[in-house]
Amino acid sequence: MWRAIRQEVIPHLGPLQAWIVDETGWVKQGKHSVGVARQYCGAVGKRANCQVSVEVTVSDGEIAAPIAGCLYLPESWTRDPSRCSAVGVPPEVSFATKPELALSLIREALADGVEPAPVLGDAVYGDNAEFRSQLRQLKMEFFLQVDPGKHKGWAQPVETRLKKTRRHVSPEAPKARTLEELAATMGPGKWKNCRWVAADGKARYTRLAWMEVYLGHNLRKAGGDLEKLWLVIDWPQGQEKAYHYYLAHLHRPPQRAPCLKMSRSRWQIEQYYQRSKDDLGLDHFEGRSWRGFHHHLVLSSVASELLICAENEVGPISAWGIAHEGVDQLEVGTWIFELGSIEFIEQMFNRSIGPRIGHRMNADRQDSPLGVDG
Question: What is the pTM assigned to this prediction?
Answer without folding.
Answer: 0.86
